[in-house]
Known about the structure:
Layout: E1 2-7, E2 13-19, H1 21-24, H2 30-44, H3 103-119, E3 123-126, H4 136-145, E4 151-154, H5 160-166, E5 172-175, H6 182-187, E6 190-194, H7 195-205
Helix pairs in contact: 2-3, 4-5
Amino acid sequence: MANVALFNMEGKEVGTVELSDEIFGAEIKEHLVHQAVVLYLANQRQGTQKAKTRSEVSGGGRKPWRQKGTGHARQGSTRSPQWTGGGVVFAPVPRDYSFKMNKKEKRAALKSVLTAKVQENKFKVIDELKFDEIKTKNMKQVLDNLNVNKALIVVGEEGENVVKSARNIADIQTASPSTINVYDILKYDTVIITKSSVEAIEEVYA
């Protein structure tokens, strides 16, 4: 099992934590990580874009001029795509961009990015992260103590005040052990995670 340093809220090293090799020492599968990121971004798309085709725009019921003898190119409708106010060729229509990965692939992708963060020494475990009040200043102080600027903070239910204290800080995202995803882990430089959240992840994904 891999050992990583355990920090407190003052940024001091207070011990070590053993991480499960099954989750934090897994084989890194880049193709599944890529697929998980594409899946996440595709699922965020609303897919509500819409433009009208020539059959949907109003007007254009009669031929604008006769077929021959005018010197103009022949036209059948003022709502053809080449006319101002005409329909759009191959117009986009609302659609669902989402797709699915199977459960084993999702887990393998998550284990891959967690393993990569551990290997890069960008995985900081903190003994506990808890505030008595909601205050951005307190959260900023903890980040300064840990020498971190852009981070994903993973806390359990006990960290409600932490989540609210962090939401006004740029480049900081919070998540719970059940809502972490591949995209956020890759997006943020460092993962700050409580010891209890590490145990929760090991219990869920083992």
